[in-house]
Amino acid sequence: xxxxxxxxxxxxxxxxxxxxxxxxxxxxxxxxxxxxxxxxxxxxxxxxxxxxxxxxxxxxxxxxxxxxxxxxxxxxxxxxxxxxxxxxxxxxxxxxxxxxxxxxxxxxxxxxxxxxxxxxxxxxxxxxxxxxxxxxxxxxxxxxxxxxxxxxxxxxxxxxxxxxxxxxxxxxxxxxxxxxxxxxxxxxxxxxxxxxxxxxxxxxxxxxxxxxxxxxxxxxxxxxxxxxxxxxxxxxxxxxxxxxxxxxxxxxxxxxxxxxxxxxxxxxxxxxxxxxxxxxxxxxxxxxxxxxxxxxxxxxxxxxxxxxxxxxxxxxxxxxxxxxxxxxxxxxxxxxxxxxxxxxxxxxxxxxxxxxxxxxxxxxxxxxxxxxxxxxxxxxxxxxxxxxxxxxxxxxxxxxxxxxxxxxxxxxxxxxxxxxxxxxxxxxxxxxxxxxxxxxxxxxxxxxxxxxxxxxxxxxxxxxxxxxxxxxxxxxxxxxxxxxxxxxxxxxxxxxxxxxxxxxxxxxxxxxxxxxxxxxxxxxxxxxxxxxxxxxxxxxxxxxxxxxxxxxxxxxxxxxxxxxxxxxxxxxxxxxxxxxxxxxxxxxxxxxxxxxxxxxxxxxxxxxxxxxxxxxxxxxxxxxxxxxxxxxxxxxxxxxxxxxxxxxxxxxxxxxxxxxxxxxxxxxxxxxxxxxxxxxxxxxxxxxxxxxxxxxxxxxxxxxxxxxxxxxxx
Length: 714
Fold this sequence. Notes:
The model is unreliable at 141-146, 518-524 and 708-714 (pLDDT under 50). Strand 4 and strand 5 form a beta hairpin. It contains 27 helices and 13 strands. It is mainly alpha-helical.
């Protein structure tokens, strides 16, 4: 039985629908309603509360959907319906279910009765089970198994042509022009620039000495290239993100070509998430502003996918276990959250290809052990033995807890059929679950292409797990940046559909679809409506039209802006360079609020190299520190974005032991600390524990007061 069987896929999709409805009913009963916290969550500062949204019901629904949807999708393929009419009806039933189930989800999560999805799941499930047992046939009797087709060496000139197109689309005519649009925005600071500044000190550890939101590895790597000014750091950040994006998609295109055996389909599928990466919502001044919103979030995804596919062929082969484990350990170091996803997705994929086989148990344990050992070895090499502390390990998961459990920066899902939400919420994850079910079912039947199915399964599993970020912040741009797995799965079924269409079948303007009849005595037909067209070509053209429509029209009504191709139109790519030049500020020298030389000199003259410096709660503190080449004293950068009480209190404790405190000043020379909590803590210290010791253009240096007592200075 082929793993590209549309009958199995359609049945699995309907099983997923039943599972989703059942998950919805359970989530409505088991979890409280979503909403803003009524009181300040433990450990958070008051100013941060409005950016938190508790989503227990919505997140519980997603997790239950993954479990129940996958299980029922698998059970729905226990027998197969061979009748073509029945299979066609099943497919149409699935298509019709998209808007209907979407409305039921919106109604139920909004507070509606659990009985609606409950009865729908029971009724639909009972009808489908009856259909399977009355007219379904055992899979073992449906014909020969599909063997792996021999691979043909790809034509590399096609690959190089695709890479040339991608280069023209992605590489800017000026990296500095892209950086200038970002300016001193705090997003790249909190991700990589801020944590990298702590490496200007001696032996400072992530989690213990500073909060790093996404990664412990990127800041260490970035501090080697960040330069000595804010401008150099932002340009370096942009360069790293764009180069990493090019390398990632170059590998992804080659990988998808091997999966699909088609350069054209591989390029189309890869270019969709690439162009969606040019999100330009109203609160972002340009693309590539949030490094965590691009491929740096999952830099080794394609490498892990390839190595997992090799491992799936021979699960006990030690060199393959060691290879995927080493890359997974490195992935955890580079980006903790997605590294853990790789750690989980690879064994799940092996289980899909070799379900319930005892011989995969030891290899999976070996894989996990080696991956964690590699991660520990890298941590030791970078941070030394102090990193092997329980507090360091606990802090590794702090960002995941803050964003995942507490709902920081969370948005509710928009359960409408507009803005392509039906694709985001239902079709793409549903197709991924159904594909996992088909792979698991086919692996029980006989010989099949283990490497390709492992690759497809890994992309489906990891894609569903990466969408967990969208489960917290349910905005269109967040789904789009995690869309590589879902689009890879949809691409598989699109190319399978095209290939199963008989190339002899034609489509005529009068509505006739079928094999053409040779009627030589008739005159040659004129006009496009009268000429026959191959149905395969017409379907392929319709798919391409749908893709172009999608990448041009994605939108988010709650966060308006430009997305996809419309966002790319503002990007100074090499393709646009002969026709237009970047406008406005195109160099970092013209960016507003760059550190003044007097402020940098003020910091450098009163502190020593490697000495941690406190700049009180300023969004531009990192720029001053980088120019002065001093490590931060505050627990998080930008310090004005500190959002937990622990970060706040630890920063205050350090300030109370510091020799100097630098405070931004307002127009009249008064301390300019915009948040009430921060101002209430710092203002009483000025003039009492600290005395003014100098001024720059924007900063005032306050020196700790020394009191002469009988026993000397204290």
